[in-house]
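Workshop exercise sheet. Pairs work together: one partner reads the sequence aloud, the other fills in the structure field after running the prediction. Swap roles for the next sheet.
Pair: D.N. / O.F.
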Amino acid sequence: MPKQYKIDSVAELKEKIQGSQIAILSKYIGINAEQATNLRKKLRDSQVDYKVFKNTLAKRVLDELELSDASTYMDGPTAWAFSADPVAPAKVLKDFSKEVPLVEMVGGILEGKVVSKDQLDALASLPPRDVLLGQVVGTIAAPLRNFVSTLNALPTNLVNVLDQIKKQKEEGGAAA
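Structure field:
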């Protein structure tokens, strides 16, 4: 009969994988307590949940969720990072690995699909979500801005043309 903490751990991991946009598996062997605390703080500041689960229990969950391919990334102690923002944990872990090379992303699950370390690195190089949204809005708004500018220029141009016609008639009337 399985122990209750194992049952709870399996249920928790299953819920976290299903409830997150991304779950990243990372290695952390050899970091000291201060580095671990610093990493957890950076992840927490980015609203990322970071937790270690036993590999045997995690493999059971991955099998249940038909994500067995992700278990190939679990070799030795593995920590999981969960987030609703797919870019945040990848960015934090990649930046932290520059300071502490012992921490390394090895793979993950993005929206129910297993992803490799290379795909996570590409994800980490994206700008933050707010910047991406701003770029999308700017791209959508640019043609509208140009259209409004053109519409605003029409009355001004019409007034200039009418003014030129008036001046020509005045000159033509004065010359006759």
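Discussion prompt: The chain has two domains: 4-126, 128-176. What would you look at next?
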